[in-house]
Amino acid sequence: MTNGHILKGAIFMESFGKKVVQLRIPVLIVSLALLVPSFFGYVGTRVNYDILSYLPKDIETMVGQDILVDEFGTGAFSMLVVEGMEPKDVTKLKQAVEQVEHVEKVIWYDSVMDISVPAELMPGEIYEAFNSGDATMMAVIFDETTSADGTMEAIEAIRKVTGRNCFLSGMSAVVTDTKNLSEKEAPIYVCIAVLLSCLVLSLTMDSFLLPVIFLLSIGMAIIYNLGSNIFMGEISYITKALSAVLQLGVTMDYSIFLWHSYQENRQEASDKNDVMACKEYAMAKAISATVTSVVSSSMTTVAGFIALCFMSFTLGMDLGIVMAKGVIFGVIACVTILPSMILVFDKALEKTKHKAFLPDMKGIGAFITKHYPVFILLFLIMLAPALFGYKNAKVYYNLDETLPKDLPSIAANEKLNEKFDMNATHMLLINSDLPAKDVKHMTQEMEAVDGVNWILGLNAMKGPSIPDEMIPADLTDSLMDENWQLLLVGSQYKVASGEVNSQCERLSAICKSYDPKGMLVGEAPCTKDLIEITDKDFNTVSIVSIGVIFLIILLVFRSVLLPVVLVSVIEMAIFVNMGIPYYTGTEIPFIASVVIGTIQLGATVDYAILMTTRYRKERFAGAEKKEAVTIACQSSIKSIMVSALSFFAATFGVGLYSNIDMISSLCTLMARGALISMVTVIFVLPSMFMVFDRLLVRGREGKEKSKKNKIKQEVVST
User: Fold this and answer.
1) What is the DSSP letter of 25?
2) Strand, helix or coil at 377?
3) Could you give all domains of the chain from N- to C-terminal order, each with its CATH number?
4) Would you state the pLDDT for residue 120?
5) Which residues of 383-396 are buried (b: 16+ CB within 10 A; e: fewer)?
6) pLDDT digit string (tens) for 117-161?
């Protein structure tokens, strides 16, 4: 970029800053008006509570799910366990459940034969599958997919129809409970984040009113972002729960930068006679400086979120797009709404000023430069155990196990395991033309697989003692059409366990030996795919996020070594953060490695960029190495601490409160990551500057010398 382009850019930024200052009242009016359509957009955006639905649509398990919907008119089922009820009363209950809207079919052993017929005439595996002691079980099949609104409505309706001794299990029930819990907790997340952020900012900034103005400005940006999600059609419940909190934490440092710049420019313009003119001038300069700095800084954060879009597990794209939008809205609000509010509420801000409670950090810079070899040594010592913990931390994929045990669906799953030794149900789709003898042999092989309790299909329902004409037509239609026949497989093993994954592999192999186009679908096979896909996604996203952020830093600072230093420092912080669960014996969600890796890198590399900018400025202005590093530390530590502490506050409280472990774990990791990145940047990055100073400034020094020589030659020639 030429000096002319840079000059034009600077002129434009100054002009933009002046326009915002002049039009501050219209800016606030427009910003308030935009809240109305944003609110309706937020309300109109559907929320998806089924994590497994974000798997790639072309994998076999998802293709099978589509076949279930298209061919059988169903994509979901639940097991209803009934205790201590007479068969005739169970029949009445079954009839009542069948009347619930979106219930396609209820299968019980009376679906095959009247309950008045002696049990010995019933095929043994059928009776045993549906009965255990005083408990009986029926399969409830829905006419929509697992997380469809109709299915969740049906779940709620069935719970009203059934009594205390009835337990509705299955993925659809879990999704319904997750929805109810998330909708109840989500508003509280925002309140916690706002209150704790406000408290931190009140203590670290120099005005009690200023945090409120910060949060109002950021809150508007959050509402705009959430409202614009309507154009996406739907978002995941994780995205909905985290986006507001994340946007608050990630974009807070933009507001802090604008305020500090405004304060500095006010001091420089203090010679102006008109106080208000002084403030307007200072704000225009602050907006110009903020646009220049924040836009380049926010690019790394946006890049981190965009990297999530490269996941084949499209939950990453869902979260990535929403958060990338959120950062952009946050930047826009920071340079338009926030300056306008500060100027409008100037008098109130002056009245609420106080001395910041953060201690003076002047001595830290000198301490770090003096002892930098110690911090480099600590960096090297911690690298190996941090990386080991990071690589070996245990993750979980079975989301229902981390939900509160008192939820109806979790209690029902426990009851299903207790009474029927059953933890998962698979579905087999095979060719409807497959000969009955092949189906029989296939099911016999499958029943011999470890952990398989029973296999129910049309052939099993018939049995040797039941003629074809006695099978009800609606039952036949539920289990077979012109292309496919459906079999249910009961498993002892828990979803996401190594045992069930091996079982699924064995069952799929047997199925394809009889029918190459046959498919094994259901929660357990989908979760198995989830494990394999997210492992690949992690590597892809890591490479993309590091590569893009590396490139941005390279272009901004025009140095090859500098991005290596900055990314290495933040990656070290990520290794420490993600390695801690290994040493504490804590299991983390499967998506944590991907999400935290990109978010922590993208959001907290800003701290490193802030310090680096000041270090280079001082170094190229003629300051010696030690002096430049010391000044960079002293000038940036407060901003870094305020930003990191506000990010910590916004996420830590949510992590403590949430009863959904996925959200709780992610927020806890993000909160801890902000603090670890803060400490690493403050102590390790300046030490890196001390070690690599000559390499970091050599190229620039050469250019400066060349430029000075050229000027000297021009002077001599004239």
Assistant:
1) H
2) helix
3) 1-33+205-348 (1.20.1640.10), 60-175+406-527 (no CATH), 358-392+558-718 (1.20.1640.10)
4) 53
5) eeebbebbeebebb
6) 555 555 556 677 778 888 888 888 888 888 888 899 999 999 998
